[in-house]
Design goal:
Elements (H helix, E strand, L loop, with lengths): L7 E2 L3 H8 L5 H8 L4 E4 L9 E7 L5 E9 L2 E9 L2 H10 L4
Parallel strand pairs: 1-5
Antiparallel strand pairs: 2-3, 3-4, 4-5
Amino acid sequence: MDDMLFSGFQWDRGNRAKCQKHGVPISEIEYIFHNDPGIAPDIAHSQKESRFFAVGKTGEGRSVFVVFTIRGDAVRPISARYMHQKEVARYDKEAPNS
């Protein structure tokens, strides 16, 4: 993750259920963080703690959008979903090397 170093992931009942709500398995969420995701700050939702967006592809090539924060040295996913085709096209246009 570029200049972000992390030791692992922080999962509990709350964020696990919210991330899996849209059908994205935990293994795929963790996979994208180990495979050079695109990361940007989520300024609009960072009032209580810094939040970020991550965009990456699963091993099968599906594009995933994850909202997360860093707690200590762990990634805490907040929400995850598969990206819609229009979002994938826009992301691919803006970040052609991804």
